[in-house]
Amino acid sequence: MEQMRQQWLHGFLDLCLLSLLAERRDYGRGLAERLAAAGFDEVPGGTLYPSLLRLEKQGLVRTEWEPSTSGPRRKYYELTSEGRDAVVERTQGWEGFRAAMDAVTAFEWASTGERSS
Amino acid sequence: MTSSQEWGAQLTTHLIEAGVEAEEAHKLAGDFLAEAQDAGQDPVGLYGPAMAYASTIAQTIRTATAAIAPLDRVRGPVVLRLSRVTKRYRRRTVLRGVDLTLRGGEVAAVVGANGSGKSTLLNICAGATRATSGTVERAPRVGYAPQQHGVSPLLTAAEHFRLFGAVHGMNGRKSLAIGTHLSQQLGWRPRPDVIAAHLSGGTQQKLNVVLSELNRPDLILLDEPYQGFDQDSYLDFWDQVFKWRDAGAGVLVVTHLLHDLERVDHLLELPRVDES
């Protein structure tokens, strides 16, 4: 089950990150914590950071290093205007997909009577 | 050197080997180290082993940049036309009445079971084998990567580039520059001191593909060049095929894998021809 959840998240991670960044700019560790707080499993860094790099290379996200008074510098990620368009478009796509998924998984054993034996 | 710095150095080396420009590789490694430090974690703990992570990152960069800029499709002049091509060896018919028109900017895939004459057809397209009947018209500049015998075991990659470049009238420096650039597009950085015999099967095939592309041909003929490629390189190979197409070449690929075929313009399925 855990492996399945990892695979699902893999498919949706880009949209999750874009959506979180639409809410506010953040750094890598902060994004991982917000994903965990939302109820996802811990996202491995080997998955999270390549996703962020891909979004940056696609021009959907830009990054900025900020010096810190205490501790190391920190890399912040924020959406570009293309990124904001992508959030809207991909969220619509996801909603259609989720509706189809709900329609298919709404099937209930009890209503068929087949499982009552 | 701390273990973090060592991981960073390894990542840089593997990124460069995977075809990432040196300057970008150094910057990426520095950024990843700084992010790990900020997260308060060991780079190995956060990202995993340097070699595996470098491979993921190189793949991410290639696919992301390939996806941003899909060029408008321009279909050019006909670069290959086969009309009723038939091949017989004694009384055995290998190909019967094959027709195909391939334009610049198009990809054709040839599929069929073993023994259906795929390689024979490729050789006929290249002019290496004569058809028994029918006509073959092709563009003057042809790149050809046959399945076997494409590379010379005792020459290095650079020597191959110079030799094949000379065939097309290029000087050594230009051949080397183009060959190195094309290799990097396939995620391979040739080392100067390694002869072809010591390359892995997949890398030999990459060398073969690079040689076929050295003269910027109008027609590129490829015979199952992914054999021995690992899965990631296989994807890179198709990226490369579509880059050649977008650059205006007509590409004919003989394949027995049925992946990716929804993206090709022509699918030529060869039936197994029985003895007649």
Describe the structure concisely.
With 117 residues, chain A is mainly alpha-helical. Chain A has helices at 2-23, 28-38, 45-57, 81-105, 109-112; strands at residues 26-27, 61-66, 74-79. The two termini of chain A are 27 Å apart.
Account of the protein in words:
The complex is a heterodimer of chains A (117) and B (276). Chain A has one domain: Arc Repressor Mutant, subunit A (Orthogonal Bundle). Chain A is 64% helix and 12% strand. Chain A has five helices and three strands; from the N terminus they run H-E-H-H-E-E-H-H. In chain A, strands 1-3-2 form a three-stranded antiparallel sheet. In chain A, a hairpin with a 7-residue loop joins strand 2 and strand 3. The mean pLDDT of chain A is 88. Chain B has a five-stranded parallel sheet with strand order 5-6-7-3-8, with helices on both faces. A three-stranded antiparallel sheet of chain B has the order 2-1-4, with helices on one face. Chain B is an alpha/beta fold. In chain B, helix 1 packs antiparallel against helix 2, helix 1 packs across helix 4 and helix 6 packs across helix 7. The N and C termini of chain B lie far apart (72 Å). Chain B folds into two domains: 66 residues; 161 residues, P-loop containing nucleotide triphosphate hydrolases (Rossmann fold, 3-Layer(aba) Sandwich), CATH 3.40.50. Chains A and B meet through helix 3 of A and helix 2, helix 3 and helix 4 of B.
